[in-house]
Write a structure and sequence with these properties.
Bound molecules: 3-methyl-2-oxobutanoic acid
Number of strands: 8
Radius of gyration: 26 Å
Oligomer: single chain
Order of helices and strands: HEHEHHEHEHEHHEHEEHHH
Number of helices: 12
Largest sheet: 8 strands, parallel, barrel
Strand content: 5-15%
């Protein structure tokens, strides 16, 4: 293991000591940039289904999709803890299959996995994955893989019963041994309450300012995704528009002949020598070609 790598126990120990900065990243360049920017955790999120693969939600993402992206991101991250997001149906069928799938993320270069939900059957699965020595990050609140069951991408834990269910799930995930917990799209008061009750760090996304850390999707932070942007996203750049401007500039230079210049070209055999070997386009328009003799 890279000695500079932030580990799952180190993330856990950050509770109360320093705020945790987490970003998603899905490939070598994005993970390298997030790592160089100082992310403590890089989540290879199944949000890649929407922001990279163009699906309307995360449900179509497969384990093979995730492993492909985890391998690439893991090659780009030297310091950040790399967490692989287990996609829909990779931990729902049986405990044995879930443990095997979790292990595949470790083989792909992740140091931990993230799993959505905190109901009793999920806790059993998480305990089995932990028993296989794979650190697990929990995730409750708006769990996008449950979008059909939840009836849409909606704020969770609004009323007292739902808030109590989420608090119970958070405590159960902590007891099971998760090293951290993502709280997605819950009222700020509930985010603060759960954060105060737990001994493991909470990482919020749309869960208010009092979580132990915050996570945003790479493409949202950079302005690279033109789909729906939730209220909790802060865009720090409009890289998508900058990228389009740069590409338009290139295409215009190609069309008006200003790319490439001589300085952007290589030189070898002179044009005179090439003409001597292969002939030249004569003024009457015919191309005279003298083929060199085969050896
Ligand atoms: O897939 C993802 O990007 C996530 C984060 C938003 C927490 O689960």
């Amino acid at each position: 293991m890279n000695p500079k790598r932030i580990t799952a126990p180190a993330v856990r120990a950050m509770k109360g000591a320093s705020r945790i900065g987490m970003l998603t990243a899905y490939d070598y360049p994005s993970a390298k940039i997030a790592d160089a920017a100082g992310a403590d955790i890089i989540l290879v999120g199944d949000s890649l289904g929407m922001v990279v693969l163009g699906y309307p939600d995360t449900l179509s993402v497969t384990v093979d999709d995730m492993l492909h992206h985890t391998r690439a991101a893991a090659r780009g991250a030297q310091r950040a803890l790399v967490v692989g997001d287990m996609p829909y149906l990779s931990y729902h069928v049986s405990i044995e299959e879930s443990v095997r799938n979790a292990g595949r993320f470790i083989h792909a270069g992740a140091q931990a996995v993230k799993i959505e939900g905190g109901k009793p059957s999920r806790i059993k699965t998480i305990e089995a994955i932990l028993d296989a020595e794979v650190p697990v990050m929990g995730h409750i609140g708006l769990t996008p893989q449950s979008v059909n069951a939840l009836g849409g991408f909606k704020l969770q834990g609004k009323n007292a019963d739902d808030a109590r269910r989420l608090i119970d799930e958070a405590l159960a995930l902590e007891r099971a041994g998760c090293f951290s917990l993502v709280l997605e799209c819950v009222p700020a008061e509930l985010g603060a309450f759960i954060t105060e009750r737990l001994t493991i760090p909470t990482i919020g996304i749309g869960a208010g300012p009092n979580c132990d850390g915050q996570v945003l999707v790479y493409h949202d932070v950079l302005g690279l995704y033109d789909g729906h942007t939730p209220k909790f996203v802060r865009k720090y750049a409009e890289i998508g528009a900058d990228m389009q401007r740069a590409l338009e500039h290139f295409l215009s230079d190609v069309r008006d002949g200003s790319f490439p210049t001589d300085a952007e070209s290589f030189h070898g055999t002179s044009s005179e020598e090439l003409k001597r070997l292969y002939g030249s386009r004569e003024s009457e328009g015919a191309v005279v070609v003298e083929m060199p003799k085969a050896q």
